[in-house]
Amino acid sequence: MPSVWAVLKQIKVILKKTTSFREQKPEKVSEFLDILDNLKDLPVLYIDETGINRYLYRPYAGAPRGEKVYDKISGRRFERTNEVEQKLNGSFLIRYIDSQIREWTE
Predict the structure, then answer these.
(1) How far apart are CA 20 and CA 26, in angstroms?
(2) Domain presence at residue 89
(3) What is the pLDDT of residue 27?
(4) Are 78 and 99 in contact (CB under 8 A)?
(5) Residue 36 resides in a domain
(6) b/e map of 45-64 (b: 16 or more CB within 10 Å)?
(7) Cα 32 to Cα 43: distance, rounded to the nearest angstrom
(8) Residue 84 burial by Cβ neighbours in a 10 Å radius (0-12, 13-18, 19+)
């Protein structure tokens, strides 16, 4: 026996809910859409930034039952790689990679 949702999908009745935020102000939305409409002829520039900690360790380990697993990890230094990329019309414009070792300061 098919579920109610499967039957509704077969007869092409799809229940969707459109949500918006209570705090949303209609005049600000229309102002933003007007500004966006004026910019539609300009090329779109995508910018993405990410940061990766290069100091990775396994918080869990496997061992036969009853045996403990010991590991030593660094508590002072870690290496972090930051990467920023810009993409325009499907091609990368700038790729900036910065890798450095930082010390924990207290």
Answers:
(1) 11
(2) yes
(3) 95
(4) no
(5) no
(6) eeeeeeeeeeeeeeeeeeee
(7) 18
(8) middle
Report if residue 102 sits inside a domain.
yes
Q: What pLDDT, in 10s, does the model give residues 32-90?
A: 999 999 998 888 888 888 887 766 777 788 889 999 888 887 766 677 788 888 888 87
Query: Is residue 13, in this structure, part of any structural domain at all?
Result: no
Q: Cα–Cα distance between 98 and 80 in angstroms, integer?
A: 8
pLDDT computed for residue 72 by the predictor: 81
pLDDT at residue 101 greater than cutoff 70: no
Domain encompassing residue 92: 43-106
Number of domains in the chain: 1
